[in-house]
Specification:
This protein has about 220 residues and is α/β, with parallel strands linked by helices. The chain is built from six helices and nine strands. The chain has a single domain, classed as Rossmann fold, CATH 3.40.50.150. Helix 1 packs parallel to helix 4. The structure holds S-adenosylmethionine.
Length: about 220
């Protein structure tokens, strides 16, 4: 098995095991998060109503649904069949597909926007250039990327979550490091936002949100 297959297998197994508990714990992840809703609103405005948007690593689909409620043609992709089962049950009107965001079954240049909302946090740093190249491949010229992740240096290992016999590392990253990697992958950085941890839902580090754009002839503004 290659290193890539190793971490994909471990990530899929983890989320297949915890999907129902995860969905219950993060039942309304945007409900008391006005900053996050605002950033997703900015993203929707940048993409515009004509653009199709992929929520990559969508988990239970709450962000996909929020993007849909903002008028976007949004669909979700996730590695984990159990996470997708929850997403489809909770959001029967939306489209969810199984796959890896490192190797998407999506045509070149076909999306107006890509959201990766806490889904790059299990991708080893050495694989991030390939991940960002794949995001860039599927975006149309001028298309927008919104990347959310925990800020910081040290990974957090989650061992036996909700009593399940699984373990996974949650990688935290410096926003400057992610910005450099996005630039190296051919994106133009639009903005970076870091909010302080608020202690809710076991949150102990800052939360980072980067807007980036694939250069090209697409109309519209940068974040
Ligand atoms: C922390 S959860 C976040 C889920 C959702 N975005 C949210 O904010 O609730 C991470 C999700 O990313 C998915 N994921 C991680 N790596 C992935 C990959 N390479 N391709 C597709 N999904 C991936 C996991 O299966 C999991 O559902």
């Amino acid at each position: 098995m290659t290193d890539t297959e190793d971490f994909l297998t471990a990530t899929r197994a983890f989320y297949d095991t915890v999907a129902e508990d995860y969905a219950e714990h993060f039942r309304d992840p945007l409900g008391d998060r006005p900053l996050e809703r605002g950033l997703l609103g900015v993203f929707a405005e940048l993409v515009g109503p004509a653009g199709t948007v992929a929520d990559l690593g969508c988990g239970p689909g709450a962000v996909t649904a929020y993007l849909g409620s903002l008028g976007l043609d949004a669909f979700g992709v996730d590695l984990s069949a159990s996470m997708l089962g929850v997403a489809r049950r909770e959001n029967p009107a939306l489209r969810f597909e199984q796959g890896s965001m490192l190797d998407l079954d999506i045509a070149d240049g076909s999306l107006g926007g890509v959201v990766s909302w806490y889904s790059s946090i299990h991708t080893p740093t050495g694989e991030l250039p390939s991940l960002f190249a794949e995001f860039r491949r599927v975006l149309a010229p001028g298309g927008h990327l919104l990347l959310a992740f925990q800020a910081g240096g040290e990974p957090r290992r989650l061992d036996r979550p909700w009593g399940h016999p699984v373990t996974l590392d949650f990688l935290r990253r410096r926003p400057e490091q992610m910005a450099e990697l996005l630039t190296a992958a051919g994106f133009t950085l639009g903005s970076r936002t870091v909010r302080e941890p608020d202690g809710r839902l076991s949150e102990s580090v800052g939360q980072a949100f980067l807007f980036a754009r694939k250069p090209g002839d697409g109309a519209g503004a940068d974040a």
